[in-house]
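REQUEST FORM: STRUCTURE PREDICTION
Request ID: SP-0412
Submitted by: Lab K.M.
Chain count: 1
Length (residues): 346
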Amino acid sequence: MHAIRRRFPSAHLTYIVEPAAAPVVARNPHIDEVIVAPRRHGIGGFAGDVALGRRLKASAFDLAIDFHGGPRASLLTWLSGARVRVGYEIAGRGWMYTTRVARPRELRRRHSVENQWDLLTAAGITTPPSRSEFPVAMPVAADAASEVAGRLAGAGLQPSHRLVVVHVSAGNPFRRWPFESFVSLVAALVRAQADVCVAVTSGPSDADAAHHVIAQARAALDRDAAARVLSPGEFSLAELRALVDRASLFIGGDSGPLHIAATSRVPIVGLYGPTLPVRSGPWRADGSVAEAVDAGELPCRPCEQRVCAPGDFRCLTRIDVAAVLAAAGRALGDVPGSVRSGATPR
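STATUS: Completed
RESULT:
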């Protein structure tokens, strides 16, 4: 959106998003209008999309870019009636766009941002993708920051503590590191450094798992160390962004929260199973610390995340706790050798 704004400084930029992800773009300084489009099923959902299409067409947009590529996004792009409609060359739906961009089916060793940047190029935006010029952005909301500060204080965080946020859930089982590994990691983090507190977070569907990780990690520690495993409760996306700003380190799998963390300057340790850091690593300014830990080369990596070919999720189960702990030490600056964003992640 920053690159689009630079190319069209006086344009009215509208962003369409479903409710779950709306907080990510709600405060983006380059967007004039956010349209939240709830997903409904059946005839009612189709009728709602047609009504939204009429609203878009009445606005007489000059340009529509479909970054998503799914059936609903394709339909709304077509219904907008924009003079120029840019999207991927997709079987059965490519006709909905006036300008089509090839999208190879294989999972390339190329960052997803660069893949989507191809759509900007097709729209006449010739500025090349740059992590430093165009990092991902999600400004912190003041009310969310205040709420997070109060909850952290209530959970026991002291000014002298360094906070590590460990996010234990992911959007699907293909990206979820075993919970037992998270237990070992959390316990090791607080055991290794007397000034470290760990806040364990999760998505709503994995709240029980987060409670399990907290309880088991505390059980493995003495009383003083156990008190530094915090249970601050669930966070909205806006609150999660504010939480990361309070942290010295974020650790999590390749999921939405990791990329929310990427909008900060906080060091990140990402855990990559079926995905590759070169394709899915944090897109952030040069100089930001980003460590990547994975199981190494496997014949089934990367995968489509529809079925585990070996059947044992080895891309995740082979990620060693000791390797994650070492990466955390580097990211925190406790040992040398941290990897800077913009370099090739390991």
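NOTES: The two ends are 29 Å apart (CA to CA).
Reviewed by: T.R.
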